[in-house]
Specification:
By secondary structure, this protein is an alpha+beta fold. The chain is built from nine helices and seven strands. The chain has one domain: Phytochelatin synthase, N-terminal domain (Cathepsin B, Chain A). Strands 1-6-5-4-3-7-2 form a seven-stranded antiparallel beta sheet, sandwiched between helices.
């Protein structure tokens, strides 16, 4: 059993190095409260975590946002591909179909958030939920001020432990010691012992995937977004 665990640990570490190597050399320094996924401690947290069903399919589709406004778009592409939602044609991949950051947006999403506006200021939690709802999946948007830390922790952890369950977090970077404004990325796992969630940060040119404590993540979501009529940030539950 110990040999099996050791081999699994090596495989996980190898996978994490491959997952983050492309961007690792250029990423910004992390504050001490955050733990890199591709560190010894970060890999061990993944091995120890129970709520990690979301990690494996998301890691297969993990990508970097194509520009600094597309964190929400990249996060949705990851989740829709992980769910196996029927995708539109993708230029350059014919005859195969897959979601990309170029074909996710369409006439329906344009009515919700014009691409010109998106390019200037990104998207809000409300817009994220509305765009996801144009696809044949289950979507539930929660603003952090509408529930407490305990409810968020319990709900998100259960979703991450459920096959086909995903969580997209909208949070303020500077509230967890990063630079600097609002951001969106998928959560991929939860470790109960350390009370930490794993963020698969889609701005891989800037920060690696990190483990953040549940209180710190909740506090970062429970911040006012002036672009969303003064509502607080929060998270979106997604499922088949």
């Amino acid at each position: 059993m110990n040999k099996l665990i050791s081999r699994l640990r090596i495989l996980v570490l190898s996978g994490l190095l491959t997952l983050t190597a492309a961007a690792a050399a250029q990423t910004l320094a992390l504050p001490p409260a955050l733990i890199r996924l591709d560190s010894e401690a970060g890999a061990q947290l993944l091995l120890d975590s129970q709520a990690r069903r979301a990690y494996w399919p998301l890691s297969v589709h993990f990508l970097t946002q194509k520009n600094q406004a597309y964190c929400g778009v990249a996060s949705m592409v990851m989740v829709l591909n992980a769910l196996g939602v029927k995708a539109p044609p993708a230029a350059g991949y014919e005859p195969f179909a897959t979601f990309t950051q170029d074909n996710l947006l369409n006439e329906r999403t344009e009515a919700i958030l014009p691409q010109r506006t998106l390019a200037q200021q990104g998207m809000t939690l409300t817009e994220l939920g509305r765009i996801l709802s144009t696809y044949d999946i289950t979507v539930a948007v929660t603003h952090a001020e509408d529930e407490g830390l305990d409810k968020f922790r319990d709900t998100a952890a259960k979703r991450l432990a459920t096959p086909g369950g995903y969580v997209l977090a909208n949070y303020l970077r500077r509230a967890i010691g990063q630079e600097t404004g609002g951001h969106i990325s998928p959560l991929a796992a939860y470790d109960a012992k350390s009370d930490r969630f794993l963020i698969l940060d889609v701005s891989r040119y800037k920060y690696p995937p990190v483990w953040v404590t549940a209180p710190d993540l909740y506090a970062a979501m429970n911040t006012v977004d002036r672009d969303n009529d003064g509502r607080h940030r929060g998270y979106v539950l997604v499922g088949p």
